[in-house]
């Protein structure tokens, strides 16, 4: 379930020209303020991609990695950097340089983009905390199925982030719409992987400590939240573009 939905149809960005339906381009339509906002959003997505790389290394290295806390602190620093960029963007958006009909969607874009980085910090912090858990059994079953599952989720998230950054820098509406569609498809693949993960988790429940069960459940939910938020942001980008070219 997505928190943000488009208020306009994708067909709203079509126009009639000499009897033929053509797609408008946003090239030359964006004002300086809007270009700066898109650049700032792309900066947050770049930060999210850096956080994603670190979190993936943390998972692969395992809970006995001596650098786990150091890597978690690196993600914490990225989360603070994202907060600062988001705060500045919010000030710029509400400062009068942006068209009023874009305000709500651009504010929402800023919040959703920053939330993605927040989720990565949550994952990093939970991985670090789990390393300190004093459990009578191994912390997490390090079988190939779990490793493959989370690597797949991380890979989908990284692809979504790359496509979001591409959409934010694109001046072509057909490309933006195609990227949005591709992100939706990645999110749907993530849903399937998450469901398979929960099937495996519940089947393994008798052999897991309740802390292990909760930890793996949170990893599954939060990994999926990144994909959901990526789709939300893609929808919002389309909504902004739609408002600009109408």
**Spans with pLDDT under 50 lasting ≥5 residues?**
4-23
Q: What's the number of helices?
A: 6
Strand order of the largest sheet: 1-2
CATH architecture: Up-down Bundle
Radius of gyration, taken over Cα atoms and rounded to an integer in Å: 20 Å
Strand share of the residues?
under 5%
Instruction: Give the N-terminus to C-terminus distance in angstroms.
Output: 28 Å
In which range does the helix fraction lie? over 70%
H/E element string? Answer: EEHHHHHH
In the residues, how many domains can be counted? 1
Provide mean pLDDT, rounded: 85
Report the structural category: mainly alpha
At the fourth level of CATH, the homologous superfamily is Phosphate transport system protein phou homolog 2, domain 2
Q: What's the β-strand tally?
A: 2
Q: What is the 3D form?
A: globular
Largest sheet: 2 strands, antiparallel
CATH fold field value: Methane Monooxygenase Hydroxylase, Chain G, domain 1
In CATH, what is the class? Mainly Alpha
Quick rundown:
By secondary structure, the chain is mainly alpha-helical. It is 73% helix and 3% strand.
Protein model, in words:
With 246 residues, the protein is mainly alpha-helical. It has a single domain, classed as Methane Monooxygenase Hydroxylase, Chain G, domain 1 (Up-down Bundle). Helices cover 73% and strands 3% of the residues. It has a two-stranded antiparallel sheet with strand order 1-2.
